[in-house]
Amino acid sequence: MMASANPPRPRSRAAAAVPAPATRAAAAAQTPVPPAPAALAAKVRTLAPSMTRSMQRVAEAVAADPAGCSALTVTGLAERTGTSEATVVRTARLLGYPGYRDLRLALAGLAAHQESGAAPSVTADIALDDPMAEVVAKLAHDEQQTLADTAANLDTTALSAAVSALVQARRVDIYGAGASGLVAQDLEQKLLRIGMLAHAHADPHLAITNAVQLRGRDVAVAITHSGSTSDVVEPLRIAFEQGATTIAVTGRPDGSVAQYADHVLTTSTARESELRPAAMSSRASQHLVVDCLFVGVAQRTYETAAPALSASYEALAHRHRARPAPGTHT
Fold first, then answer.
1. Cβ contacts of residue 229 below 8 Å, gap of 6+?
2. Using CB atoms within 10 A of its CB, is residue 326 exposed (0-12), middle (13-18) or buried (19+)?
3. d(CA 265, CA 287)
4. Triad 223, 8, 22: Cα angle to 5°
5. CA–CA gap between residue 57 and residue 64 (Å, rounded)
């Protein structure tokens, strides 16, 4: 029996990791840079939903009172939040800091940033009796905050690697369900307009049967806020095992989708409420990431992308011109 030309890769991202760097300098170059103080609050908002309740208490405390928490020892913060020293350290590391000392420095920086008046106000959830002007103001504020949080947390190294994979792709398959499926369609049409072969699969069966055909020169993109939507995770897993380069756009970088992603691009969301579900609040940040991917690809393929965009515009231009009213002559 002939062996498969594209044997499945390890299911675990850890198992698929590249060998350890040969030198300390190389290892240091791969060490993640802790988020800047101004990005700390955004990091908390993004990661809090996936934390344990005890870690959430620590994260919420440092986001609510950075000045006060920056003056506390690890023991003091543990006592203030009713948790343990180990929980405080784990929370610091999950937020991207090597240890609690680094988190305290970031908290001090965030406190100074807020004292300068640069911190935005936080609006309340939309109420059933809010006047329309207030609804508009609250939604606009939440959208702006979501985009700012996504930009602050987006790993530009991973983004650049994802763009490079798309530039070299023979074919791009995109998976999304529900509101994320609309974002998948948006990425599809953007890539098609610059001459790339792209397919957004709304039917999960078609997504799976197409994923089976992917190979090393192909790219698969999964868009899922929860990071665990089976109709999105399953085709990405198959694409990963077939040898395609895989990209996950998700609000939960610890979700199951990340296990099968070569590149994880994290999105943020506004606070959820009865009138603003996750599907609604996540869409703006997903569109931002999709636009970043598209612009990055267009930049690197400008010589072919520009003529393709021009051709697609010309092909549709006549459909956007005003038609003469009935009975008039042209």
1. 177, 178, 180, 257
2. exposed
3. 12
4. 90
5. 10
Are 263 and 247 in contact by the 8 Å Cβ rule? The answer is yes
197-237: per-residue pLDDT in tens?
A: 999 998 999 999 999 999 999 999 999 998 999 999 999 99
Nearest to 281 by CA among 26, 44, 45: 45
Half-sphere exposure of 282 (CA within 13 A, CB side): 23
Distance between CA atoms of residues 151 and 176, nearest Å: 21
* Angstrom distance (rounded) from CA 24 to CA 36: 24
* Residue 174 identity: I
Token pair 């006592």 is at which residue? 79
Task: HSE, CB side, 13 Å, CA atoms: give it for residue 71.
Answer: 4
Side by side, the strands of the sheet bearing 198-201 are: 198-201, 172-176, 219-224, 245-250, 263-266
Using one digit for the tens of pLDDT, what is the confidence trace for 77-118?
Answer: 999 999 999 999 999 988 888 889 988 888 888 888 766 654
What number of H helices and E strands is found in the chain?
Answer: 14, 5
CB burial of 78-87 (b: ≥16 within 10 Å; e: otherwise) equals: bebbebeeeb
DSSP string, 74-89: HHHHHHHHT--HHHHH
Q: How many residues does the structure list for the chain?
A: 330
Instruction: Report residue 211: phi and psi, to 5°.
Output: -60, -35
The whole-angstrom separation of Cα 68 and Cα 2 is: 65
Alpha-carbon gap, residue 289 to 195, rounded angstroms: 20
Model-wide pTM > 0.70: no
283 and 134 Cβ atoms separated by less than 8 Å? no
Distance of alpha carbon 68 from its chain centroid, rounded?
A: 31
Rounded-to-integer distance, Cα 225 and Cα 279, Å: 8
Maximum CA extent, the chain? 83
Predicted pLDDT at 275: 52
